[in-house]
Amino acid sequence: MIKLENVGKSFANGDSLFWAVRNMSIDISKGEIVALSGPSGSGKSTVLSMLGGLLHPEEGTVTVDQVNLGSLVDRKMEQFRWNHIGIIFQRFNLIPVLTALENVEIALIPSGMSTKQRKQSAAEWLARVGLSHRMQVRAALLSGGEQQRVAIARALVHQPDIILADEPTANLDRKNATIFLDTLVSLNQSCGTTLVIATHDPLVLSYMQRVVKMEDGQCLM
Ligand code: ADP
Ligand code: ADP
User: What residues does the ABC transporter domain cover (predicted)?
Assistant: First the structure.
């Protein structure tokens, strides 16, 4: 379902190149629950960004659902992401002037659902993350933890095949972290959703079937 083959990603560092991910290969099957763990700067976010097609590697290939992401140009990549992937990243966040409900609802626009259906699904998912009472509040006025929960509802509302999450519990208290993880596991069990989560959090790690350890842009296996 997800395959990284000899992937390398570099960033410019003054006049030279810095390789954030080097010669990395991993295979993730449909329905797996996988953590990427490793120290800050080891390349976890960069790997997730490549899996979501937000960054493209200079070396190697990233294949998701049998599609080589390198072959998709911007519009097609966006379409592919809407159809297959839910992203929960700290810096891929909410639209501040829209309400919590609107932020979740927009993830359903490409689905072709009616406005009424979209609002209903968005409201259901906000209820699942405990935000029914905050639905009409603009994202800018929500706390960090509330914003994170809206981002989670937005990533899950269209029930993607794959969920990519970068430190998703960093802003959550233990109660909400547990609700989030239980929700992910139930989606995994009912829909076969594949989960890839970059995390240091022992609570999250306790839910994982497999942990891929990273160091200096490589996975240790
Ligand atoms: P994490 O919390 O997972 O350690 P980081 O804060 O390292 O995440 O990075 C989060 C995002 O910021 C990543 O998508 C990465 O591409 C970007 N980023 C990280 N380091 C830099 C940098 N030195 N310059 C520009 N962008 C960066
Ligand atoms: P992690 O998520 O494990 O903390 P990242 O993938 O965010 O690691 O970063 C890996 C390395 O790549 C870090 O040294 C980071 O500073 C660097 N990096 C990430 N994104 C960028 C970027 N956009 N520009 C420059 N350096 C970056």
Answer: 2-221
